[in-house]
């Protein structure tokens, strides 16, 4: 041992140690690598011919632009030695990673979004001076759909309200229409928002259940706070489990005030009407989708846009005179738990929105987009709705926490397309390099600039509405006390099938509660909506049905509230075509062609992946019996009778006791067919595919089943059925 050596310290490295990986020089540039993509505020690449490469440029660099020769090894004192603190690349990489997550939205954390364009018809030009609503005006938009209760990683198809938030990048500034797929809300006053959300979110002790309303705290609150009754009923209806974001209505919920160039005002409610109609899953389907494809809605939206099946909605307004009492036909327009039936105030279409591009980066766009009810443009103003007023405060406040400071408007997705000339300065994440010395008014040092605008130069001027002399109170108008008449209106407007679904939903949700008092109180609320509804749910819970405690109203049903009984375009509907991979390939080709001709999406399902048929005319398999599940398809078509499955899948004929291979149908195909049938979906069987129906216990003449015949005939029948969404006449509702 030399004098300098520390006793007990490890000796020098043995000379010959194999290193698993040698540092190596940068790889040669790939011919298709370019500089970083430049993206406009709406996410559209601004450069020509941009590729979807993860990174631009040939060489990996640090954040400061220094080229790196290795990113796989930390800098160490020898290959087996300690890591050196001086390794800036290591610290930069890990530190950045440690800070990659931002707080998720306190509500609406789970979402999916798309870019698009809004084209105004001009029909609202007489009631608002908003330039983007003038005839022919085209405005870029970004829309984010969401669930409310679940965390960012929760499943899409839970029973919940859906957010429908639209950012219009107008020439006069950003207008955000931050709505939902349900036209009413749980509460009438923003001060109750923390209460309803605390009740709906997972229980604070175990943090379960995730993204569900079927638990005691939610039902405890909504049965005590009965102004939630109307919204809860919508949640329990099929509106709570949409088939697709593309098939949802959207509502601004609150009453807005529009003002035209002459200063005349009109009260309005905003509606989004989907071109594809309003459609839902059935509850079992939605539950299966939570496990089989938690990203079901997100995938559906992105796939449709990528395939060119651009979803469209018409924006419409219900208009009401701006009277002093702000009532219409006895309905308080400031009460967000009330709708105005379309039969009383028709929805007038004022423009068309088309979503035509997926985001390029989820975090930069979908996660960082920041909506605000107060982002208004000249011609659109708020009302005294106490829920809306509270929202005007909340949205900036939440972005400051979520996006780390007050400069979130500078993020590309949030940037207005109108010129910005504000006097907001500094703060976290400031990216602007402001000039001048006088960010204050009045000033002389910057020449007095900027000047304020007037009505004639496009200023946003609040409508000078009278505020009636009143006493300061914590109270609401007497009309807000009616919590049941519109819930009853909704119930009476439902078809028997929809009522059956609602009854099943309440029975499920209250059945998931443990507290007896909560269940009983739930029934007392239902008795005030409808005795039949109450009786059926009570039966399901095994409890007596109570009597109503309020007089039951007899409102005129509103047909517009029902989703059923009409036909809709079938664009983008997904049809699963089942084949055994050997026989019936002509039928597969025909069926696929017919599906494509109808503007729908064919997915060929075979026992295993790859290509089927001859090399010069192959059929590509998109799903296998192992990866396919009925929830993915709007209809199932059997292109022939699939051959017996391998023993591993237990496809023995039930009648053979000796365990020998039989002619039984693969159980995964049987599950596909029986599940689709149980969920009301169209089922088609070409040629001898009908034998599979028999094995599945599905009658070939059952409603919604098209059996026998050529693929083209079967597909005609299936397409017609899909226009009505589901074969509801397959079931006999008890209500
Ligand atoms: Fe929201 N809401 N909200 N809300 N809301 C948020 O803002 C809030 C309400 C809605 O995709 C938050 O940026 C309060 C009604 C949508 O980014 C937060 C009240 C309606 C989205 C917030 C309401 C909505 C939000 C959370 C009661 C339908 C998602 C993250 C006064 C008309 C937007 C964020 C997106 C998001 C507060 C009530 C719709 C905390 C206090 C009513 C679609 O600011």
Automatic annotation (TrEMBL):
InterPro entries: Catalase, Catalase_AS, Catalase_clade2, Catalase_clade2_helical, Catalase_core, Catalase_haem_BS, Catalase_immune_responsive, Catalase_large_C. Transmembrane segments: none annotated. Its cofactor is heme. GO terms for molecular function: catalase activity. Gene3D superfamilies: 1.20.1370.20, 3.40.50.880, Catalase core domain. Its EC number is 1.11.1.6. Residues 61-449 form the Catalase core domain. It comes from the Bacteria. Keywords: Heme, Hydrogen peroxide, Iron, Metal-binding, Oxidoreductase, Peroxidase. Residues 1-51 are annotated as: Disordered. CDD domains: GATase1_catalase. SUPFAM superfamilies: Class I glutamine amidotransferase-like (SSF52317), Heme-dependent catalase-like (SSF56634). Pfam families: Catalase (PF00199), Catalase-rel (PF06628), Catalase_C (PF18011). It catalyses: 2 H2O2 = O2 + 2 H2O. SMART domains: Catalase. Belongs to the catalase family. HPII subfamily. Decomposes hydrogen peroxide into water and oxygen; serves to protect cells from the toxic effects of hydrogen peroxide. This is Catalase. It comes from Streptomyces drozdowiczii.
